[in-house]
Specification:
The protein is an alpha/beta fold. It has eleven helices and twelve strands. The strands form three sheets. Strands 3-5-6-7-8-9-10-11 form an eight-stranded parallel sheet. The structure holds zinc ion. Zinc ion binds near residues 23 and 261.
Length: about 325
Amino acid sequence: MPINTANGPIEAHALGRTLMHEHLVIGMPGWESDSQAPAPDFRDMVAACVDRVEELKAAGFSTILDPCPNDLGRNADLIGEVATRTGFNVVFATGLYNEHHGGSPYWNMVFATDPDADKRLCDLFVDEIQNGVRGAGIKPGVIKIGTSNPPFSDYEKRVFKAAAMASIATGVPITTHTDIVLGDEQLAFLTALGVPASQIIIGHCCCSGDHDYHMRIVDGGAFIGFDRFGILYPRSDEQRIESLMRLRQDDALGSVIISHDTVCSWLGDMFPPAIMAKFNLTHHPLHFTRTIAPKLKTAGMSEAEIESMLIDNPRRYFGGAGG
Ligand SMILES: [Zn+2]
């Protein structure tokens, strides 16, 4: 099945080297209430994103997955413009974030008042995938959902159910956010509803050092996100490398996707400049290629194994089990 990108459908073999979790723009709900923050300038944001994409192209990448859900400032006009100007593959998302940090005040009200709310949410995801995002017209190629701290809330389960139904109806895969735990529960919930495990990425698994947790998800048939390289909390890059080498011992590298969870443009002004400056020292979408891959090679991983995580694993995820 062709994959929706912001420049139109492509086949899985055309993905090339892919970073599976990088953001062009993010705005945490509430950003628009900060009238003291610099007003977002569409032209400036596009320019910053184009520069970043050109850097990735020069380094041999041809695709990013931007899994920003609808309620974290997703801007389809901007994504479309960046993709048009660069010719780069940007696979972007439809979906909703977790209850704690997402747009839950709005959707909880819908759930409380509309007896058809579950269908309405599923239809929203399906309509965006099949007909494009209102205004921009471009079509999402992935569904993004998430949990935060336990328990897996009723709200999140309703969102997961709508996402599962939309994924089954359209064949579009799912990628998730986790806060260290609950990934195995997410996987069990989605597969019980009929989503093939091979079309699920459990995000941010590298924030956990629990090898058994990683292997439960791998053995369940899903992909695990080592998608926060360069974010030195709650674990260092060295700890993430250790976990990856342990997965290699168990022959599990075929289930790992690689990324950094960078944000090119933030809406609002959430972080003081000193914190951003420190953060930016390591948090760049080429950090894996420049800094982590050489360390993996020193630890014994081959170039072919590294390239396979960047090329073959994304292709299998988007292409279905046989892709
Ligand atoms: Zn993210």
